[in-house]
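Memo to structure team: turn this sequence into C-alpha cells by end of day. - J.P.
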Amino acid sequence: MDATANWERVYRCAAASLAIACSIHYSWAETATVASAQVIAFGDPDAFDDNPQRQTAVVTGVAIDAAGKRLIAAGDDHVVRVFDVESGEMLDRFAKHSDWVRGLGISSDGETLVSAGEDRCCHVWNLTTGEHVSVTQKVNRPFRSVVFHPNGVQFAATGFCCPAHIYNLSGGNLELAIECPNKDHSAAAFSPDGQYLAIGSSDGQLRIWNVSTAEQVQLIDAGSRRIRAIAYSPDGQTIATGGDGEVVTLWNPATGERRQQLYVRPAKAFCLKFIDQEQLAIGGSDNRIQVWWTTGPSLTKVLEGHTGTVSTLAVDSTGELLVSGSFDTTLRVWRLNGVPQQKTANRPTATSR
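Reply from structure team:
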C-alpha cells in the first residue's frame, strides 16, 4: 500500500469517527432530562461534637418499602435512618453498627430490614416497631452488599476477602457459605425465583450459584475490570452487570450469552436497578442516573441534580418511584410517572460503535 492510499485510509477513519461523535452528541440532545422531586439531606445537621462527619454522611445504601411510603438510607457515619417519602421527615434511626454501613436489603413485605457494614456483621431490624431483631456473628473481613432472598426468610451478604454468606432471618444464623475463586465480591443479587445467587467480583467475573446445592452453574466473563453492580430483570431472563468498564452489559443468565451493551462512559456504573421489565436505571460516577430501554436499546431519560457519584438506587413496586443516594450526602426522590420518554433517542450500541 503506497503513502497516498495510507493517508486516504486515515482520512476515512477520521471522518467515520467524527460522524459517530456527532451522532452521539445528537442522541444526548434528544434525551429527556429530569429533575428530582425531593432532596433529603443525610446526616445529623444538629450534631456539634468532636466528629463533624456526623453532620453530613456519604450515602452507600438505600431501600424503599413496596408501598413507597418509607425510605431507608445508610452510609459512612454508621447510622441507618428511616424517612417518610412524602415529607422527608426522619421517622427512626438505628445505630448499632460501629463502622461504615455499605448495604441495605428490605423484605418484599417491607417489614424487615437488613444492614451490612465494614464492622463485619449484619443487623436485622423490624421497620414497623423499630426493634433490633438480631445480629450475625462477625466474619473475617468487611461486608460490602446485602440482598434479601425472595422467600423473605433468608438474605445473602458479600464483601472483601470473605465467602458469600447466606443467613436465615430468624436469629441471623449462617446457613451456607459459598467459596468463590475471587475473594473480593462487590455485588450480589438473587434471581426472582430464588433459585440462584449471582455474585460480581473485582476480577470482572460474574458467577451464578444454585442456592440449594451451592454449585456454580454459570461463569460469565464480563471483562477484566471490577463489577460494581448487578441486577436481575423482573422475569429473571436477563442479568445486567456494570462497573469500572465502559459498558453496562445485559446477559442471558442461563446460557451466558451477551444480549446488549449500553455505553455509559465517561461514567463508571456504581449501581443498577430494573424499574420494570424494559427499563434499567444506572447510577454512576458522572453524578447522574441514566434510564435505558433495554430493548433497542435506547437512552430515554437522564436524571440530574446530584453533585457526587450516585452510589445506590432503589425502586418501589410500581416502578414509578426511584430513590438515589450519593457521595454528595443527599438522597433524591424521582417520580417517573408522566415523565416524557424518548424511545428514539439511541445511544451507540455494540453494532454502531
